[in-house]
């Protein structure tokens, strides 16, 4: 058994991650941040984008920002998406996780309406949205786990802050055993699938977005309480 882990994990995981409540977490998402996320005070007009990694997160962030600004792309020129949509459980500088400030510090001070991102599974999320009656709006994006796993494996290889697995076979075994960073795909997705009919939850599928992006933009806009013209929806879908 690896030190600090409840079961044996590859050395690359030991070097880049830790285990908390049975979930493998990258060190750039420190325990101090996770504990703060649970206590994060939600506002009624917050919009959370929650996903398992490599499920279309950045895509939906960009669409949500564009919709928030009425489809006016000029208002997003020069915008750093990491600044505009804080990654709640992470640090500002993933290369120096032990000394870097926490992103949640900035998120707490942001003016409303806020768009916020998290990969946490439900028990780690803010208490106001981790139940079956979320008090703020949540867009959850799910992607076929087979495609998610392949994308995640490659992402780990070009992201120094994540484990660099020796082979796909090793990563796949860890993914199936719920020992990939962020834990179980199923435990991340299923609570939001059960909540999909709640008025504060919009459950999107990555594959549906690929098939009909204008339709997804319309869904997101309506969920955000925004009215966009057909022209703006088409333009936003081609970004």
Automatic annotation (TrEMBL):
<dbReference type="InterPro" id="IPR000863">
    <property type="entry name" value="Sulfotransferase_dom"/>
</dbReference>
<dbReference type="GO" id="GO:0051923">
    <property type="term" value="P:sulfation"/>
</dbReference>
<protein>
    <recommendedName>
        <fullName>Sulfotransferase domain-containing protein</fullName>
    </recommendedName>
</protein>
<feature type="domain" description="Sulfotransferase">
    <location>
        <begin position="44"/>
        <end position="235"/>
    </location>
</feature>
<dbReference type="GO" id="GO:0008146">
    <property type="term" value="F:sulfotransferase activity"/>
</dbReference>
<dbReference type="GO" id="GO:0005737">
    <property type="term" value="C:cytoplasm"/>
</dbReference>
<dbReference type="InterPro" id="IPR027417">
    <property type="entry name" value="P-loop_NTPase"/>
</dbReference>
<keyword id="KW-0808">Transferase</keyword>
<comment type="similarity">
    <text>Belongs to the sulfotransferase 1 family.</text>
</comment>
<dbReference type="Pfam" id="PF00685">
    <property type="entry name" value="Sulfotransfer_1"/>
</dbReference>
